[in-house]
Every structure is written in structure tokens, then in C-alpha cells.
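3.2 Worked example (two chains)
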Amino acid sequence: MGGRFRQPTSRWVGFAVAGAYVVITAITGTALLVAGQRISAADAQAGPPAGAFAQYTDTITVTNDPQTLPRTHTRTTTPSPTTVTTRVTTQPPRTQPHTTTPKPTQTHARSAYDHVTGPAGLRTVVPDGWAQARSTGPGAEIAVDPSNSQRYVKYGGSAIDGSDMLATHLMYEASYAARSDGYHRVALLDATFREADAVVWEFRFTGPGGTQHAKSLYWRVKGVEYFVLVSGPERDWSRMSAVYDQMVAAARP
């Protein structure tokens, strides 16, 4: 029994086959696992597939005049072996057109006064629209407010002798006061007008419409006595005083 070869039984053969299958399966699984790990490591080193994500650089080229020429954007995709250049053309921002507002046409309002030339060449102004005519006395013109005849102005000039100017007007004042109702002197005094001898006479009297206020300026140049005079209702004196100032300022010579 010690040196005789024993024929293996069918049970033993089955166990041997099963054991070999287990060993082969284990070896195959281990090889596949190692190969999978190697493939994963290689993929990790190679990076993502083309097109998975893209890093890009954006280059803007500006032309010489950005206000009138378009801007060009250049985008380059780098991960892929093939470089794709995309040009995007954008129009510059619209600029508001420059508009010029025309200046309003300047219109000159009609002057409130008219320039006039009276007797002896006197030049002055009278309120616009007032009716003009010859007045009583030598060398005198009159302009009357058409809306109220109690508002009027006189102006003119006439030759005189060499008598004292203030004394002459004091005599005339006495004559005028004798024939006028409610005469009251405000002022009668010597003055100088444009370096010429002058007299200012201001007074009140009673007129058809009530108290009337008057003021006049007399001055002498080369043997001629010139004058301007304004008169109006006392209630309108501020207005008439302004007329007096305008007439005196414009008076020549």
C-alpha cells in the first residue's frame, strides 16, 4: 500500500479544478484593477478632453480715433491644439449730435422819447407820441400828452440882450404870479449848465384840473437864451420830473 499509486477520486479532482478557478479569477481581477488605476493616472496627467473648458485671452485693439472708427475684440481659445480666432466688431457708442441753439433775434423796443429840434436850433427829446405845435411866446414849441392836455412840455430859444439873467427871471416871475391862480414858488436860483450861465425855476399854480407843478431850465449860449419846461398835475409829478431829466440830459447846445 506504501509504494502503490492511488488513482485520484472524482471528488479530489473537483476540488482541484475549483481551487484553480479561484486563483485564476483573483489574478485576473488584480491585473484589471492595476490597469484601471494606471489608466486613471494617465488621464489625470493628460488633462481634460478638448472642449471640456477653455482658458482664453481677450485682446482689444483700439484704432487711432475711437470716436469715429469701430473697436475690434480678438478672443483666442488655447486648450485645443487648433487655435480658433474669433473677431467681434462692435460699433463705438453713439455720440449726441452737437446742436446750436440760435440766439433769439434782438429786437429794440421803441424809444419812449422822440428827438426834436426846436427854435434857434435847440435839440432835445419829447415823450413819444405827444402832439407838437408852436407855442405862445418867442421861439417856443409845445408837445402835449394826447391822453391828458394838462401834461405838456415846452422848449426853444431866442436872442436876448446882455441883461442879468437871474434879475430878468425874477421880473418875469412877478408878472406871471400876478396873472396866475395859486402861484407858489418852489425854487428860482442861479445855476450852471454845460459851463453856461443858467437859471432853474420851479413852481406850482392852480390849473383847470387842480394843482399844477412846473419846472424849467434856462441857459444862455452866444447871445441866445434856450429853455426846456415841463408841467403836469401834482399827482403826476414823479412822472413829469423824469421827463424833465430826460429833456435836460438831451438838450443841446
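3.2.1 Second chain
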Amino acid sequence: MSVHRTIENNEEVGIGPSKTYQLFVAAAGGHHELNFIEKDVRHFIMREVRNVSELDDAKKFKKYLVRMKGKKQNFFFKLELEDDQSIKLAF
């Protein structure tokens, strides 16, 4: 199993970054056997949380625009999303 997937799985079940890092240290046989530090685990989690949040924001923004279009006939918008559903263009 990959390091990233292990971090994601642990985060989903409530195991924090510090404990996750300690588990990696124990499995590897010590800190010196790892090519990353605890701070890297925290950064990975924060980056993933930010990405999920941005994707949720794009979906909510689209729902808002559609709702406004339903309320006002002269309301116009153009929204283009990337393949990963992030906002590419908003007009």
C-alpha cells in the first residue's frame, strides 16, 4: 500500500498525522529509514483537504448560479469546469 493511501485511510478513520507518522517509523524500523518527516504527513493532509474543499466550492458555486438563473430570467452565466471538476472559467 502506498504512503499516500495509508495517510488517507488513517485520516478517514480519525488517526492523526502524528500517530500516522509514528506508525510509519515503527514499520520502517526508525526515523532514519524514512525519506520524509512528520511535517510532510501534515502537509499532505492539508493539501488533500484543500483540494476537496475547492471541488466542493465549485459544485456549490454552480448550484448557486443555476438557482440565480431560475430566479431571474435575464441572469446569464457561463461556467466551465476542468476534468477534475475544478473551475476553469466563470463568467
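3.3 Remarks
The two ends are 42 Å apart (CA to CA).
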